[in-house]
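Lay summary

Proteins are chains of building blocks that fold into shapes. Our project writes down both the chain and a compact code for its shape. Here are two examples, one after the other.
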Amino acid sequence: ELQVGVSSEWSRGRESALPAAHAIGGDLGNKDSTAELNGSGKIPNRDSGIDSPSCSVAGETFPSEEGAEQKKPSMAGNPGEMEPDRKGTKPSSMEQKRDSTQDDDSDIDEGSSEEQELPECTEPQKLFNIANELLHTEEAYVKRLHLLDQIFCTKLSEAGISPDVITGIFSNISSIYCFHGQFLLPELKTRITQEWSVNPRLGDILQKLAPFLKMYGEYVKNFDRAMDIVNTCMQRSSPFKDVVQNIQKQEVCGNLTLQHHMLEPVQRIPRYELLLKDYLKKLPEESPDRKDAEKSLELISTAANHSNAAIRKMEKMHKLLEVYERLGGEEDIVNPANELIKEGHIQKLSAKNGTAQDRYLFLFNSMVLYCVPKLRLIGQKFSVREKMDIAGLQVQEIAKQNVAHTFSITGKKRSLELQARTEEEKREWINVIQATIEKHKQNSETFRAFNSSFSQEEEHPPDSSVSTSAYMQIQNKLPRTIQLPETHQACFPGWCPFLAEQV
């Protein structure tokens, strides 16, 4: 506890401390110094020792002094707390009692002690918080659906864009918007805002409506194709591009692209799954809502798996686009069937003199791209020197005199002797290339077996009425190619054969 007396020493300390107090507290330093004393002759604890005699020695620094000066501005910036002292009012009797019984702690310390005294959130409150988060995110999600269905779709239609193109982009977004806007959101809102005090449940609503989430399957399956159509239209159709860009400039779009908003429905189902899992963790075992909540989670998890697969597929496509740009567009690798497995720097050993040359490998599930780095100031670019198919490729370790960490890959047209930086890196390259070769062989054998079986079915169709239904089921499951209609020509001149749809 800091004792202060009115003395010459105190006066000298006051003079040295006034500039600091003035810098922190504004006009506090101009007030009568007697207003700073309480009935006990002590400095109020809001000063945290800044005006105390211990701070009066010029040039003297204490470990705690710097921290006190740092804490002071946050307090001085609150006019409400400082107003009583500015008026020069005396501390209340309660404050005097506190000063006489407690040490002079800072306001920050007092605030932290108050936070520690707050009661911990109860389990029912935690459940309500989860429900409330579900409601708020659902409201925001319905606004995004409104943007897609009622703004983008409507404006594109008014601009004369073909209905087939619009359907190819937005799929069944109207049905999804109708379900969430007219069914799920109203029920959640009524339950959480009006009925929660008497019926604190979520599982029954979600269990009843979760089966309708199957409609997301159509949207998710069409998502890759929708992205292709949007990208192509932005490049080849001026009316389409103008409409989309005008909408994207509006505040409702939040400076995000059409493609970003189109990803929202794909991401929504996994978020339901996460919230419901959190809800079940907080839900008591004996709760009447547990059975419905568990059943809801089972249904939503099934739908989430499809969405997660689509998200992973999109991430793979983004990687392919990045590699495509780094290759300067030399190789057409942006294909849903392609998958980037590994990439990295490698040394190529010259067949003439054995010197090492800097090279770069891209390993895909169907090919290896052997590249030469280009000299660039910004961003690494590569030029493709050799494209080697995985089919028929061989990889093996080789031993060369005075050269370590070497291996070779041999294709149908060329063989390359390569050197890794370390033995571990060499083993990694060999293993991953060998695994890719084996997987490609297995896929090829499976495809040949399927074709062989299908050919036999065509040569000897079933002649009994009993097996006809089973035969037709197999036929219906096989993919059939459908050309895009001529109405797409307005947006895809010359692209119809390329955008054949698999259904």
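And here is the second example, written the same way.
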Amino acid sequence: MSAKQGTPSRLERILAFMIAGIIGISVLAFVTVLVASLLGLERSDFAQGLWPLVTAITYVGLPVGFMLIIAMMITGIVRRRGENTKTGSHEG
């Protein structure tokens, strides 16, 4: 196995940072909504200001992060399959 083999591609690194950022922001938005609810904000308060955006991030961010995780898995499988065919290894 060469030193270059098995290292993530630029696309995989970009996907990894996107996943971390989107899921991190989504969890932060979720915690923000929970804390705001505990501090006494009512349902009608979440319909004005930046709160609709914060709740939308909560609803959309985690599914998008999950789809990016699947995309990263697919790119990793394709890369490893390509590396195996270049080296002539047909294991697994």
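What can we say about the second shape? DSSP finds two helices and no strands in the chain.
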